[in-house]
């Protein structure tokens, strides 16, 4: 049974009338281009794939695969989603996704990446466990300019134009070359059920511990959400308010206010992301590069460089790194450091990986191992020490 016959039978069964209308080509550009996928699909050169893997680390999934396409670099990804498997419509969070999409889909993909983009793009892409790596021809369309603004991690490649003679990229040829742009965007992780439960429990416990019992229950909720709105976005405030209203009455004498919904909406409207890093400005890549040049100067400079690189690579708040103890650090057989960080806002714990490799002429994993042996004795000892006259104090 053909597609048209199935459509007609379904319409007849539901008593529907079908009318055919012609849409002018200039009003139907994107569907018209997408209907010619044979010319829209193109392969990423092997050299570009190798450079991406070396620069940002290998991805896990190819979201623009097709059954007859074999990636030029063996082992580049462990999983592939074809167009028939709706690779561009799946949930990309919590994994490293690679894509080389048709030009007609750049606007759609840019909007999707914006919806799951992590607010803080700090740290090294090599350590990101959730990211989108996209390769696309470089051109000056509004969609491309919007896409480029999503990340500062970009790379450009000039490749021979003859390998794209039969694709839609042929019109971009200049001096027998086509310029490709690659970029990586850090995306939000898909939280596990356990992480969600722990975060919700942390919000409820914080309200019950910090509330002023002399105030009515609605004022207690309003005060808590107003404080949180200074360092949280609207979506986060809505989640916190929802779980507090659901769980707090079950485990305490706090009663659900009649105006709870209005209180949550009001706090959400006042929410701001300006204090997302706890009121401090996040560490930038340029600052890390500048400060790492001084790590050989003295133990004091060594400690400063170590602190700043850990903040940069984990995208953690300064207070969270400052509160680390010897017992919060573990090392695997490859020399990578695993940090157990206690979040200051949700009061939940998380683990961050510090890869055993050079970052701006400094290896933070190896430096951390040396510093722990020098500056700490017991598991409960603070990681950071006062340095006087180039001597580390253990008191």
From TrEMBL:
Keywords: DNA recombination. InterPro entries: DNA_brk_join_enz (IPR011010), Integrase-like_cat_sf (IPR013762). GO terms for molecular function: DNA binding. GO terms for biological process: DNA integration; DNA recombination. This is Uncharacterized protein. It comes from Carpediemonas membranifera. The lineage of its organism: Eukaryota, Metamonada, Carpediemonas-like organisms, Carpediemonas.
